[in-house]
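Quick question: what would this complex look like in 3D?
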Amino acid sequence: MKPRKRMMSLGLSIANLGYHYAAWRHPDVPADGNMDFRHFVHCARLAERGKMDGIFLADSSAVRDLDRPAIAREMEHQLVKHEPTALLTALAAVTKHVGLVPTASATYNEPFNLVRQLVTLDRVSHGRAGWNMVTGFSIDEARNFGLDKVAPSDERHERAAEFVAVMRGLEDGPIDHQGKHFRVRGSLGVPPVAHRIPIFTAGESDNAQELAARCADVVYGGQPNIDDARAYYASVKGRMAKYGRDPDELKMMPGIMAFVGRTLQEARDKFDRMQALIEPRLGLGLLTVSSFPDYTGYDLDGPVPDLPMPGGRKSEFVVGALAKAKRENLTIRQLYELVSGGFWHLGMVGTPTMIADLMEEWFATGAADGFNIQPPCIPVDAEDFIELVVPELQRRGLFRTEYEGTTLSEHLGLRRAVPMAEVA
Amino acid sequence: MRQMKLGLSIASAGYHYSAWCHPDVDVRSATSIQHHVTAAKIAERGKMDFVFLADWSSILSVDDTRIARDREQAQVKVDPTLAMAAVAVVTKHVGLMPTASTTYWHPFNFARRMAAIDHLSGGRVGWNMVTSHGLDEARNFGLDKPLDSDTRHDRAREFLHVMRGLWDSWDDDAFIRDKESGQFFRPGSVHALNHEGRHFKVRGPLDMARPPQGFLPIITAGTSDNSQDLAAELADMCYGGQPNIEAARAYYTSVKGRLPKYGRKPEDLLMMPGIQCYVGRTQAEAEDKFALMQSVMPKEVGIGQLIVNHFPDLSAYGLDDPLPDLTMRNEFLGSEKLGGREPELTLALMRRARDEKLTLRQLFDVALCGFWSLGVIGTPKSIADMMEEWFTTGAADGFNVQPPYLPGGGEDFVDLVIPELQRRGLFRTEYEGRTLRENLGLPRPPSLHATAVAEAAE
């Protein structure tokens, strides 16, 4: 049999109203969309029209940083959101092909409950469930679950690895698991359709990379340029051998946020229009919440002052952005526009050809096996990506023109997934 | 005029233990979302208040080889909250009542899940609140035995208190979403909970707009003092399991009698006994349906069910042999499997078997077709007569209909019995409202914070 040509995997990230902080103010974005099921049906059908592997819902179990007055939370749209597993199960009932990947925490869920729910999603969708496994680094989440602080990274990742062991056990049949974090003696009674539900993870820390190499099927990457992405790709895949895994068993899928225009000018106009919607108070607050120093009170159009860094998580992005600000003599306004654009990951303003060129280069030179599309505004920029970029990728033979399989594992081309006969 | 409330219980393929063996039943019902959707649409066609999905978080006693678990349908099932999330988006009117445990859910996760389904359904979800006394469940959650009843019920009370606080996190008018000014919500319209109690510490706020219903209608069940008190204090409905009108009246009076001590009126709680019926246009047709259902039940399932329910092991007897003097099996009584409960339904059935000198087959007929609650084989008229009597003489405010098999048993009830109830003015002919609360006649509660503002203004 002729081996199938390697193709990209594409996911559509549909959290909130888009990945740009001011997305909800776009005239064609429904401002109440993130509590409106019809909005999400539209998104899911778009993804199916684009033959995408799955839709992905980011999540955290909290309203974050509400008590920090420097942050203009009342100007943001992502504080209230749908519960991903319920929402995607509802979407399963009205879609046919697209994979459904909710985020859920291995730290704040009991394995028996969550695995049962994921298998339910898988059953309702006939094999289209995935799980984005997170371990929860936010203090705001910890406080909703009886804790005064976040458990250390080592402990969270150890628990997550044990969580996956329990999950894989429950997927296979009855278990009598006795571990450090869990004791589970029982059975779900019903297996997932595709035998194993694909697991997504993310994160750059050693712990996160080890966890991914050990048990993830997809890694959602966040590298802003090809050099970093290649290094990350090699680093994660390089760790797999010690867990007895082949590099092909894991798909590296960086996030990409693209402003697409039929012409470069059109793309730039879209970008500029969104940037203009960021109020200064929102912009300054976002710098604060993103672990930049607090620039409140300084001249927005003056140079970025040299203030001490706040404590907490050190972000390479923050260090990099400040270096860029210094190098290019950016103003505070330009800095927050840079940050607020949402370009934490790979960002691109361009034509379909330019964007496809970039994706092809990443795909062909060891930086990506696919991408998670993060539309700046939803649904409008998702529509543009699917109408303009996906056809270009298809013309180049880089992406499917029809769904070949029925399950998420099949869409992703995961080698390990052995579809089982319907059992029930 | 006072009218009945009616729920349709749609767990598994029906309430007969061997429902899945019925020739017209899809053997995959319990894990098929199509089954749940079909059942919900039947209930909606009958203008029923809600569909109800029983649940427990485990499979049951698979290691007891005397029980033919491999012949039972109820071992495999899907998560009820998520099944209802899917049903929500393909139905318009019917309420959705999933079961969930206050012992094995974390309140923050649960508040999100249920608020999400209330938004998805436009305000049609309720909650069958259980505290989980099963040993098999405990073992799935790191415990060697279930928590004791007092602890479970204390936790349930605190759980509900946390739900109220979390669901009221955002004021009803919190979201302005003014694209011009860039203001998405009104500052001061979001409230942290900062709950610190005996069982939970939850800061909040919830990351979701207030549920359309404000607070979800709650149904509970159970005959223990703890269960009855919990129902009287916090529930909107109580799912009863009494097999005859005397027992149902006593239970009705007992639960309603507890309401005043919680500052509530008798009409604040609806008593909803379960009723399983085989409906025929004639009595003979109904009896044929029952006989067909009974005929597909293997003896092993019957014997196993008796063992589970603490009967002596009867496997040595033939189906038509007279039974020996039945005495209760001792080894489980008072043991951890019962968690301190009296197996009252079993004791009642045991008495009846002794008094009426039932054969094993007759005992199966009573016990194993699922007639633990009210069971009836009859015509629309005889069934409506009975329901009317229960409804008008202090035994019920409505019923949870437990079809012996689905969808056929549900269709029979909706197509034959409901029109008769409607003719008598005992049941609605159109939905009164859009939300489950509205159809149940429950007012939408104001937010805790709205109340605080109103009081401060006085």
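Answer marked as accepted. The first strand of chain A starts at residue 9 and ends at 13.
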